Amino acid sequence: MADNLPSEFDVIVIGTGLPESITAAACSRSGQRVLHVDSRSYYGGNWASFSFSGLLSWLKEYQENSDIVNENPAWQEHILENEEAIALSRKDKTIQHVEVFCYASQDLHEDVEETGALQKNHASVTSVNPTEGEHSAYLPSEDESSCTVSCQMPTEQTPNSDLESSLEINDVEATGEEGKCCDDKTFVKSASEEETSENVLTTEDTTLQPKKNRITYSQIIKEGRRFNIDLVSKLLYSRGLLIDLLIKSNVSRYAEFKNITRILAFREGRVEQVPCSRADVFNSKQLTMVEKRMLMKFLTFCMEYEKHPDEYKAYEEITFSEYLKTQKLTPNLQYFVLHSIAMTSETASNTIDGLKATKNFLHCLGRYGNTPFLFPLYGQGELPQCFCRMCAVFGGIYCLRHSVQCLVVDKESRKQISRSVLITDRSVLKADSDQQISILTVPAMETGTFAVRVIELCSSTMTCMKGTYLVHLTCTSSKTAREDLEPVVQKLFTPYTETEIENEEDEKPRLLWALYFNMRDSSDVSRNSYNDLPSNIYVCSGPDCGLGNDNAVKQAETLFQQICPNEDFCPPPPNPEDIVIDGDSLQSEASESSFIPEVNSETPKESRSLGNPEQSSQ
Predict the structure, then answer these.
(1) How many C-beta atoms lie closer than 10 Å to residue 289's C-beta?
(2) CB count in 10 Å sphere of residue 122
(3) Residue 176: CB atoms within 10 Å
C-alpha cells in the first residue's frame, strides 16, 4: 500500500497514539488531506490494548528488539544537496525494565500451544538496557513520540481504513434493566451479561474438580481473547474534556463505556469503600452522624470555594493535607478527602490544587452514575481507534507497518511512569456483586516515593476472562517499576500457591500473573523543546501519569489550531444521508469504504450512545 500512496498531502501524522489520532481526525474533518502512518501493526502506540496472546507477542517484540543501522540506507539517494535529513533509530526506548511473573499453576494435562508462553514462576524478561543508547547519535524513533507535519500541497484521495468494529455506550449497572436517562439528556444503556463461561469447570464429580476456583495458566492462554490489557491505565472524567469531545464530534457512537462502581481507600492495612455521593455518605456505616455532617459541609464548600476566598486565602502556601487539618474534619475524613476524592498525597498538592481537584471530582458525580469516572469497554486502546475511524470517514488514509526512517521527533526525557498489570482471581474488596470496577489510591509508603493508583477491572468491561480481575497499577517512577510497585502488590495480593487454594478464608486475592515495566513520560515535550525546527513540523508527546486524558485533548486542540487557525475543532459530522460525493467513481469507492452505514447497521436498536444534550440520539 505504501508504494501506491499519493505523493502530496496537507497533513502527515506519524503514530496513532491518542493526541495524534485526535489531531488527525480534526484535520480530516476540516477538509485537510491527511496521511496517518504508524510503524506498528496495530493502532494506539503506547496507548494500545492487547489480548493476552497479543501482549505476549508485544513482550517478545521488545525482547528481540535490536537497533539495525544501515550505513547506506536507500532514502539517502533521494536527499538533495540543499536538504538535510536526520536518521531515526528503529529501537523504541520508551519501554524499559520489563519483567513478567507467572504464579498460576501449569495444567500439564492440557495441550495448549501459544507462541511466547511463559514458564511457571518468575520467568523474568528485561527488554531494554536502560543505559543503552542514552547518548546515541540518532534521535528516538517515531515509536517514542510522534510528529505532525503540515504541508501546503493539494491532492486528492479517497477514504481508507481497516479499523475494528464499532462500539456502543453502556451504563455501569449490569442488571438487565432498560436504558435510563441521566442528567443533561444523555442516555446510557445498561450492559447485558452475555459472556459465556466455557473456561469454568462445571462437573459435579469432586474427583475431577478437587480444588474450587482453580485458574491455571493454560486457561488464561486458552481464554486469551477475552483479555484487553492496556499499556497505559487511565479513566475518563464524566465531565472531562475527552467526554465533551466525544459527544461534540459524535465519535462516542464508536465506543461503549461503563461507570466505575466504587472508590476505595487503603487505610491501616485494610481496603475500605469511600462514600462520595450524598446518598453514599448518609448510607455509610463507616461514618458517624457527626462525621457525615462534617463531610457534607466541607464538600458543599468545595463546590463553590471560589465564592469564599476568605476561607482559604490564608492557607494558599501550605499543602492541601495541612489545610484539611485546619478544617473541622476528623482524621478519618481527612484521609478520605485527601487520597480518594482529591486523589493526591500529603506533599504533592497545595491548598488551591487540592480544592480544584475536589471540586472537579464532585462536579463529575451523577452525570453517568454514582462515581465521576467512565471506562471504555475493551480497553483504553479503543479511544485512538475511534478517532482514527472518524479521520478515515472524512478521507484520511491509513498505512500501518510503515516506518518513517527520516524525521525529527522526540528528544530524550528523564521522566518515567512505573506500570504493572496483574491478573487476579477475585476483587480486593468483596461485595454482593462480582462485577465491580474500582479505583484505589495507596499513599506513598516512604519519603521520596509516590502514591500508587490501582484500577481494578471485572470481566464485564471486556478486558479479562470470567472469574478473573485485571488490575492496573500506576505511579511516577522513582526506581524500576517492580521496585516501585511490588510493595503495594504484596500488601494487596497473595501469590498463587497450591497450598493456598484450599484456604477459602484468605482475605487477599490470589495473584495469577504479573507484568512490570517502565514507560517514558514525555508529556512535557513540545515544539519549544527543539531548536531550528521547521515551521511545518509539530510534536506530540506520549501518555502522562495523570488519571484523565485532558492533556492529550488539550495538546491535540492546540496543534490543530496551529495547523488550521480558523477552523472549528472536531465539529459534529453531517447526517450520512446529506453527504454528497462528487464523481461516480469516488461515490462508488466511498460506499465501499465508508464506516457510516456499517455503524448504523451494527448498532442495536435498543442501545443509546452518549449524545449531545442539544441533539437527539441517533
Answers:
(1) 8
(2) 13
(3) 9
Contacts of 232 (CB under 8 A, 6+ apart): 46, 47, 380, 417, 419, 474, 519, 543
Cα 31 off chain centre by:
29
Task: Calculate the alpha carbon distances from 37 to 166, 399, 478 in Å.
Answer: 21, 5, 34
Cell reading at 59 = 513482550
Cell numbers at residue 273, please? 469503600
Regarding beta strands 236-237 and 373-376, do their DSSP bridges make them parallel or antiparallel, or are they unpaired?
antiparallel
- Judge contact between 263 and 340, C-beta under 8 A: yes
Strands (E), 377-464: 397-399, 416-424, 438-442, 452-457
Angstrom distance (rounded) from CA 343 to CA 413: 26
- Cα distances (Å, whole numbers) of residue 317 to 249, 321, 322, 350, 448: 40, 12, 10, 7, 21
Q: Which three cell numbers stand for residue 64?
A: 528481540
CA 214 – CA 65 distance, rounded (Å): 36
Calpha distance 233→549 (Å, rounded): 10
pLDDT band at 595 (very low <50, low <70, confident <90, very high): very low
Cα separation of 335 and 192, whole Å? 36
Strands (E), 269-353: 270-273
Q: What is the pTM of this model?
A: 0.73
Summarize pLDDT for 171-193 with one digit per residue, the tens.
433 333 333 333 443 334 433 34
Q: 3-state class of 28 per DSSP?
A: helix
Using only C-alpha atoms, what is the Rg of the chain? Answer: 25
DSSP 416: E
Secondary structure E strands in 127-237? 146-150, 170-171, 180-181, 187-190, 229-230, 236-237
pLDDT tens column, 399-413: 888 776 655 334 455
DSSP conformation letters of 44-100:
SGGG-EE-HHHHHHHHHHHHH------SS-GGGGG--TT----BB-SS--SEEEEEE
Whole-angstrom distance, CA of residue 88 vs CA of residue 85: 10
Residue 589 to residue 601: CA distance in whole angstroms = 19
Cell readout for 448 is 521520596
- The C-alpha atoms of residue 591 and residue 495 are separated, in whole angstroms, by 53
